[in-house]
Design brief:
The protein is mainly beta. The chain has no helices and eleven strands.
């Protein structure tokens, strides 16, 4: 599955932004989707995930109050809504797809396919 993340850009602190993760391939609805991010000089970290059906969502504790993950399988697209953005949210955001579904979806090994990432920059 080839994934394409989009929607990144330069925003100001306190703004909102919605990222999209899309594929033109069929079979998208059977994959769980995860969002990760990597800030300059830091390791990639888990942000949020959603099960293939959309019934279950998972969040990193530090982001669950401001970020919302969703998906529209009819459009082969998952979304990450981000509110009250802070400069520390500046990172390259990646979406990933995988078939394994466990109690916590934060492990990169659960995802088989990765998109190239989209840059989010939050200015103060």
């Amino acid at each position: 599955v080839q994934l394409q993340a989009s929607g990144g850009g330069l925003v100001q602190s306190g703004d909102s932004l919605t990222l999209s993760c899309a594929t033109s391939e069929t079979g998208y609805s059977i994959y769980n989707i995860g969002w990760f991010r990597q800030a300059p000089g830091k390791e990639r970290e888990f942000v949020a995930a959603i099960s293939w059906s959309g019934e279950s969502t998972y969040y990193a504790d530090s982001m669950k109050d401001r970020f919302t993950i969703s998906r529209d399988n009819a459009k082969n697209t998952a979304y990450l809504q981000m509110k009250l953005l802070k400069p520390e949210d500046t990172a390259v955001y990646y979406c990933a797809a995988g078939r394994s579904l466990i109690a916590t979806m934060e492990y990169e090994s659960l995802y088989d396919y990765w998109g190239p990432g989209t840059q989010v920059t939050v200015s103060s």
